[in-house]
Specification:
This protein is mostly helical. The protein contains 6 helices and no strands.
Length: 80
């Protein structure tokens, strides 16, 4: 399965704790500093790792949610 940036964005929005844990591992830190540019630069890599750990059912849910978003547009809170 090819993961697009929209999938990474969905994982970031819905499973931020898991992505942040992966970020900590990638950066080798115990606590994230959101002012550190590497936090932003490595976010997609961390989201990919979190996505790869999701179950088949969770991935199917994600695919449906991403397709729904593409068809209906982004929710208001994401557009801001």
């Amino acid at each position: 399965m090819i993961h697009e940036s929209s999938h990474y964005g969905w994982v970031w929005e819905t499973r931020r704790d898991a992505v942040e844990e992966e970020l900590k591992t990638l950066l080798g830190v115990e606590q994230l500093d959101n002012r550190d540019p590497q936090c932003f630069q490595q976010r997609n890599a961390a989201a990919k790792l979190a996505l790869e750990k999701m179950s088949v059912e969770e991935r199917a849910e994600m695919d449906l949610a991403v397709e729904t978003r593409r068809a209906e547009g982004n929710p208001e809170q994401v557009q801001r």
